[in-house]
Amino acid sequence: QEVATGVPVTISPVVTMVLEERIESTGQLVARDHAEIAAEVAGRVTEILVEEGSAVRAGEAVLLIDPERRNLERDSAHAKLDEARAQQKEQQREYERVLELRQKGVASQSRSEQAETSLKLAHARVAAAGAELGVLDRALRDARVAAPFGGLVARRLVSRGEYVTQGQKLFELVALDPIEVEFHLPEADAARVALGMKIEVGVSPYPDELFEATVHVVSPTIDRRTRTLRVRALIEQL
């Protein structure tokens, strides 16, 4: 006769647990704004107002490119404009005088046409002088090289007394507040990240701290070469 044998069973109450799913990736910190400031006018660097590592505010001057020379050029152009306007008024009076004489039958048709042509030329000289003054006004403003945004001067590429040409790079400026982290996720994890998601970021200088960041860029496509998805997140405070 066979005797049935049982298997010991332990009964425990059901416990609800929260399992945390984590995705880890290695990335890099990147400046949200990064620019190489170039000269918009040619000239000699007469003053450098900030050095490498200095913090600057948006609109703050960082370098001057011979503004004294630009001021002299502008004053000369302003004098030419005043002269052209004076000649214009004189030609206007002459034209009106000839027109009056023409109506009285004293002045000839050719004299009237000549006065009209002279007045048109005077108008053109005023317009040209005004345009030249506008160009020199802009050059004077551009001689004061300003930071387009607040940040730190990462590199200074020119020295005082150096002659720079239009388009030559002068400073490298980076904005480190706020700062972003950029990383890549495998294609299999692409559906597990979304805009506005909160993530934790660890950085080497602070091995025992985690910083909160918010995902604000998720690439719409997968990189064909690496089969990964590019993600950028904004770190709240570092």
Q: Care to describe what's here?
A:
The chain is an alpha+beta fold. It is 30% helix and 34% strand. The chain has helices at residues 67-103, 109-142, and strands spanning 27-38, 43-48, 55-56, 61-65, 144-146, 151-156, 163-164, 169-186, 198-203, 206-218, 228-235. Strands 1, 3, 6, 8, 9, 10 and 11 form a 7-stranded antiparallel beta sheet that branches. It has a 4-stranded antiparallel beta sheet with strand order 5-4-2-7. The longest helix is centred in the middle third of the chain and has 37 residues, at 67-103. The chain is elongated. The termini are far apart. The mean pLDDT is 87.
What share of residues is helical? 25-40%
Cα end-to-end separation: 77 Å
Give the low-pLDDT segments: none
Classification by helices and strands: alpha+beta
What's the helix count?
2
What do the pLDDT scores average to?
Answer: 87
Spell out the helices and strands N to C.
Answer: EEEEHHEEEEEEE
Principal-axis shape equals elongated
Radius of gyration: 36 Å
Strand elements, count = 11
Strand content: 25-35%
Strand count, sense and barrel status of the largest sheet are: 7 strands, antiparallel
Features:
11 strands, 34% strand, 238 residues, four-stranded antiparallel beta sheet, alpha+beta
